[in-house]
Amino acid sequence: MRSLDAFAGDKLAALEAKRLRRRLKPTRRHDGAVVEREGRRLISFSCNDYLGLSHHPAVRAAAAEAALNYGAGAAASRLVTGDHPLLGDLEKRLARLKGTEAACVFGSGYLANAGTIPTLVGAGDVIFIDALAHACLWAGAQLSGARVVKFAHNDVEDLARLIEAERPSARHALVATDGVFSMDGDIAPLDRLSALCQRHDAWLLSDDAHGVGVLAEGRGSGALFPDADIPLQMGTLSKALGSYGGYVCGSRAVIDLLKTRARTLVYATGLPPASAAAALAALDVIAAEPGLTAAPLAKARLFTRRLGLPDATSPIVPVILGSADAALAASTALEALGFLVVAIRPPTVPEGTARLRVAFTAAHDDADVTRLADAVAALRRQAA
Ligand SMILES: *Cc1c(COP(=O)(O)O)cnc(C)c1O
């Protein structure tokens, strides 16, 4: 046996023993919140398609038409021949939505963070990053070569202490956080982070992957804090906007620098025109139906109230169960009742906090939300 295969086999066996091996499960997604796995139809509470726009007739038609007219792929980096005019149209729309001078579209949200952070900071600089920030913010931080300093989750006092100690010896400083935390659903205190950043000349990067389209009439988590100055507003086209791709909104100078130097833009193929067309159509739907954007949070609140949990602040509600085993067992029990609620285990979440991550969308019926809440309540009673 090749040492490579022996290595991979041993590693998988060790993960399996800790219930941390993961497997892909082919899943067909249908209209509404329905998914199909192994021939069974389930109501999914594990999709980030918060507004159901991936299946909206206008969004699908825009993607299909763009693919038919402009081809399935972009064929080159944006800096070569892959910069279809639809990408520029989309950037104007995103900049307007976020209230910035400019925007840059990337191939995905992951690529946006992995490319942006190393363009702006490097050796001699410092990055302060929330302990629960998304993996791609960590990836960008590690790639940059800057000193990486973790602060306690949403703890502005902890960050203040660390900035006071570490900022003076660094040339530039960047503070990276999720706007809406992907596995907890809570919201970063962007107003207080922004004030602290301004006091210490640190650049605030907020990842709004789970805020755009669903908070503040669709403008995202930053708009919940009108006084916050967030010079780097990153997000994805892949969740509430129902398409695929990522973006950063910021000043003209910053965006022009990203387009010149971000390695995940320069050395990666441009976003397919169909993905840009779909995102533009999704933004049109949101503009025409602003009421739609409030629905996911309303469903999440119906769930948290029924369970006696603190009011949801975003469409994501964690039900923390502790061990990987407990989370997997709960997920299996819910699946038997017709619900898909995927268990989230380490290293996606910290050790000992395996959970059900319940994501609510405009496509959920109130009756299904209530049924799920009652099923989760029964599981928690059994576990107690
Ligand atoms: C999903 C997600 C990303 C990655 O976005 P993609 O477009 O899926 O690559 C980035 N940040 C957060 C917080 C996310 O939840």
Mean pLDDT equals: 97
Question: Using DSSP, what is the number of strands?
Answer: 14
CATH class of the largest domain: Alpha Beta
Content-based structural category:
alpha/beta
Hetero groups: pyridoxal-5'-phosphate
Backbone CA Rg? 21 Å
Q: What amount of the residues lies in strands? A: 15-25%
Major sheet: 7 strands, mixed
Count of helical regions: 14
Poorly predicted runs of 5 or more residues: none
The percent range for helix content is: 40-55%
Question: How many distinct folded domains?
Answer: 2
Strand order of the largest sheet: 4-10-9-8-7-5-6
Oligomer: single chain
The shape is: globular
- Assign the CATH topology of the largest domain: Aspartate Aminotransferase, domain 2
CATH architecture of the largest domain: 3-Layer(aba) Sandwich
N- and C-termini, Cα separation: 47 Å
Spell out the helices and strands N to C.
HEEEHHHEHEHEHEHEEEHHHHEHEEEH
